[in-house]
């Protein structure tokens, strides 16, 4: 089951879903549109190492937009800060971004009950495309959970991506023990 627009509004009223900034026109029949924040980042090194902390460099998308290229992997961020306390939020692309050849996440679309923060986007493109800050880039959908949650994401000691700021956050895979 996925929450409908009226159910999303009820959860926003209760405070179990928080979306900031919130604009009524961004609410779809069963989703909420999120937008591209102004910060992008790329990894400093061409060869990444899953055991190491791979550092990133930030840059701001200018008003005239910024051209993304297929051979580069970008991290982006949602303009929206969200909190989801009772449902599982999923970040999905939009058909209109997909039709421009833009992927907004690489394998990871699921959020966790209790996640609070801006969403980091893992962006890659199929052909050069100019993107703009504030453009609609994805949509959040919300699934009810079956069963009690023992520990919510924002209460987990080892949650790697809690309280993400309005800038993309690099992979913290290096914190995993393997
Ligand atoms: N494209 C995405 C997908 C998820 N998240 C956020 C919401 C999730 O609640 C949080 C953690 O996502 P995962 O559980 O997929 O990440 P990991 O398993 O790598 O991290 P952790 O060990 O902290 O669970 O990151 C994000 O910012 N951008």
TrEMBL record:
Signal peptide: none annotated. Its EC number is 3.5.4.13. It is an enzyme of class 3 (hydrolase). One of its GO terms (molecular function) is dCTP deaminase activity. InterPro entries: dCTP_deaminase, dUTPase-like_sf, dUTPase_trimeric. The keyword Hydrolase applies. Keywords: Hydrolase, Nucleotide metabolism. This is dCTP deaminase. It comes from Niabella digestorum.
């Amino acid at each position: 089951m996925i929450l409908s627009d009226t159910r999303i509004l009820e959860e926003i009223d209760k405070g179990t879903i928080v979306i900031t900034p919130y604009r009524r026109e961004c609410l779809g029949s069963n989703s909420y549109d999120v937008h591209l924040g102004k910060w992008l980042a790329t990894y400093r090194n061409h060869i990444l190492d899953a055991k190491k902390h791979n550092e990133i460099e930030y840059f701001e998308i200018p008003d005239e937009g910024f051209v993304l290229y297929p051979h580069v992997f970008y991290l982006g961020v949602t303009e929206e800060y969200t909190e989801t306390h009772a449902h599982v939020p999923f970040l999905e692309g939009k058909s209109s971004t997909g039709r421009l050849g833009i992927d907004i996440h690489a394998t990871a679309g699921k959020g966790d009950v209790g996640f609070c923060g801006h969403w980091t986007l893992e962006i890659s493109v199929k052909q050069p495309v100019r993107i703009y800050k504030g453009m609609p880039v994805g949509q959040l959908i919300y699934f009810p959970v079956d069963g009690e949650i023992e520990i919510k994401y924002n209460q987990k000691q080892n949650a790697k991506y809690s309280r993400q700021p309005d800038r993309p956050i690099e992979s913290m895979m290096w914190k995993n023990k393997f």
